[in-house]
Amino acid sequence: MRSATVLGATVAVLTAAACSTFSSSKRVEPTPRPVRSTAATLGIPPGHLPPPGQCRVWVEGRPPGQQPKARSCAQIERTAPPGSWILYRPTKDRKAVHVRVLDQRRPGVVVLIRVYDAEHGTLLREN
Hints:
By secondary structure, this protein is an alpha+beta fold. The chain has one domain. Helices cover 22% and strands 21% of the residues. It has two helices and five strands, in the order αβαββββ. Strands 1-2-3-4-5 form a five-stranded antiparallel β-sheet, with no helix packed on it. Strand 2 and strand 3 form a beta hairpin. The protein starts with a helix and ends with a strand. The relative contact order is 0.17.
């Protein structure tokens, strides 16, 4: 009877150690929380998109008129809050809007890039 108890305790300890070792060796990347209910449409009024060649930080839940103004793209990721979008209109393709989605917890860390049609707001591709 005693050997069965010792064997059971040993198996439990080894199982717990194996699970602990496995889970700590795995690197878990944070999953970005969707900023909008769907990624298929941009959901930003065309008049609030940045001019070609500039960027604009877009903060979820803030009305369009209260969003930060468009500006140079230089170091914009450093000032953008976690979970926000950075909108960019390339000068060579004025019909596109590039959206860099920032991580919800880590400021300045881009977790997803989407490209939308500027006029219709439809998703063209996602990286």
